[in-house]
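User: For my dataset I need records formatted as: sequence, then structure tokens, nothing else. Please produce one.
Assistant:
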Amino acid sequence: MEPFNRNYGTVGLAVRRARRSSPPQANERLPPGVQEVLLRGGCHIGKLNDKIVLKYGSDLNDQGLQISIKIEKCILQIIGPHPRIIQSMGLVEDGLILKYYPNGTLHKYIEAHPDETLERRLEWCKQLVDTLSFVHSKRVIHCDICLYNMLLDENFNIILADFQGLLLSSVTGLPLLDGMTRESAKGYMPREHPYVVNVQTDLFAVGSAIYHIMAGHEVFPELDSFHDEDAIAARFVNEDFPNNDDYVASHIVEKCWRGEYSSAAEISADIAAVQADAEDVGKQLKQLDVEMEFKDDYEQYEDEEEEAEYDEEEDAEYEYEDEEDDEDEEVL
């Protein structure tokens, strides 16, 4: 981790740790055209119609929020079009117009579908790191990788959203643009200065996201992201990780948390290996099912043959007894 530089952040703005929701306010502002508020936080997401939403600041007097929204527009423009990244329609007076994804967040989907297949979960993990690899190639640090910021398209593929992170200079490595958002505690790499972010801090958060996808719940579910920040940080520092026998790909998650990856592409390669292993196991299980089905059919055939032989023997015995009875009647 690079040393702290007091000019690292955007001058005059305070770094914000991500908060996922906030209750409706009595005097809540609804910009013109917003039909309903889909998400409340520092920035709200309001549905305009079945195709687009508006991202706008919850507080008109918070200049930091307004700047962050403008920075997000610039970062998305720099990244450019990508099938796994949220589509921006540009700025308007009240905020940023974004494409609407009616299938919602991956966080809500996993919560509602705990029995989702291993194949699908691994594919989500692969989509996440492959998309992040592309983002990092543009010198952009996301700064808040989590399932709340992953939407699902019409085919239930991941769409990475919320780009109020920062753009790094290719010369100095310092931010050219910084939306001043940072991860919440469960995806936050413990460090002295929250301003300082890089590829490594994103990859740490990827570990928590993969854990959430594979285990079906957030890491340390008994702890609250906002009230128990110190306890969560202490567990990460002390490597007091969840039991790695409880979920698939735990070795990948722990390597993220220990800072053993240098790029998202390295994580992608490890996920691909797990996918291949899972596919092999699936084929073996399928073959086993076929063999078991054949065995069951064969055993049923043998049972039927034995029953047929038993019936023939029984019929022969009855015929023999009938013959003996006929002979006895003739003697009499």
